[in-house]
Amino acid sequence: MKTTKLVLFFILIISLGSCKKDEKGVKDNYKTVNKNSSVSPECLAPSNWFTIVNNTRQTPPPNEGPTSVFANNATVTNCDFHQWSWQKFLWLTNEVNGQPFFMTNLIQVNAAGQKLDPSNGIVLTDTAQASSKVDILQTPNYPSGVPKQTTVYYSIFMDKLLYDTMIKYGPIAKSDPSKVKDITFPVGALELKTSWIDASALKDSSTYFVTQGVINGVKTKVALLGMHVVGIVENHPEFVWATFEHENLAPDYDWTKATPTTDAPVTSTVDYPFFNKNSTATVQNITSKNGIYTDVFSVYKYGVPVEKAMKGSFNVQLYMDTSQNGSENFNNIRTINQSVKKQLTGIWNNYFYNGSLWINTEGYKDTPAQAALLDSLSYNLSNSSPGDLTRGSTAAYNITMETYVQVGFGKPSSIHANTVSNLVNCFSCHNTSDDNNNSPLFISHVFTGYVQSLEGLNRAQIKDEHVKEIVKQFNMRLKLKQSKSKQ
Hints:
Layout: E1 5-7, H1 11-17, E2 52-53, E3 56-57, H2 78-92, E4 95-96, E5 99-100, H3 101-105, E6 107-109, E7 122-124, E8 153-158, H4 160-175, E9 190-198, E10 210-215, E11 218-233, E12 236-246, E13 306-311, E14 314-319, H5 326-343, E15 351-359, H6 367-377, E16 390-392, H7 426-429, E17 433-434, E18 437-438, H8 445-454, H9 459-486
Parallel strand pairs: 7-10
Antiparallel strand pairs: 1-14, 2-3, 4-5, 6-8, 8-9, 9-11, 10-11, 11-12, 12-15, 13-14, 15-16, 17-18
Helix pairs in contact: 2-5, 4-8, 8-9
């Protein structure tokens, strides 16, 4: 397989690297130095993000409009997107009246776009991941029963700009989807998906943001596990898809022990919230619709895909050849995480940035042209082969939200055999195609859920339709790839 980035693992480096801790305290099983590329400038977090006023952090909102770095899509850099991602997260977690900004200033909605009442706490009822109704994540069932086994719950927030756009165009999309074909969400529109757990199910919740929640009608203290930060910036109507998670939720896959023809079984000497140290996990533990709900692990650090190959007599590790320079993306995420870690204080310093995804819109000079591009890509928006337009973390995921599709949809038989054609990222599910109609508005599942609610579907039916659409799109991509391979 062709590759653009190559890293040799010498025995000494492997032995040291396999136990070395990275900037967030997470075991790093494939952080290396790429000797075949020049060192790029570090991607850093500016000090003004961490200004303290009256004992609270006052991170300013990122500039996203016509005077921002995104206004020139020929000069905007990979680092610019990572800086937007971190700054947006920090701004959203600024304290306002004792609560983070996203809880006091955004609107909580359900998957049908209906407002929820969070006056008694975060409303939590949804447990299924996007990939399937039966893809549910749980903590281990310890023989002692302590801590108790429990399930991860999800909530959705959006700002008024996105909500008002949804309300405006939802009825139009219901009556005639062709009339929203070129409509996009405006710059500044923002959507969050967050994952939570009953705080009492954690052995130690002191490093988590804990707040009041209402799980299926019962008031419960809940801990934040992860957050997708999804926002529109100038020249990017596809949204920038950034993801954050609490450190050390699950072990990393040990690439130093894998080979080009064998997987490395996953074990651990310590317990994680989602991995029992007495367990051994394989690809089956992260396979969709497999009935395994715990003992999961992270495959691609920062959503940057890698692979193993033989070079002469050496077992080497490669950045997978994709539409994004893997070395550049990995190092920018690593250095900005380190930069934030050095300057951030308080509870949010226990969360790390696991990458983001966007589309290269260089050459598409305005919103109509960009909307047409997204519509033309349709369900192929996620394609990440060399020459395609996805940028950033081409295998972007959050361990608590995309647990079971890290190495593709369907039933992957191994990790080592995964290729660029099987990569799954945010655009694999979130794209412009919806029931044979295309619009950038359909990239938001909340928008499509709202339209379906106007059509009379209930929440269970809306979930069914989302899963059916994902399966249909996956099958269409698979057929297209098979037809190309026969040519």
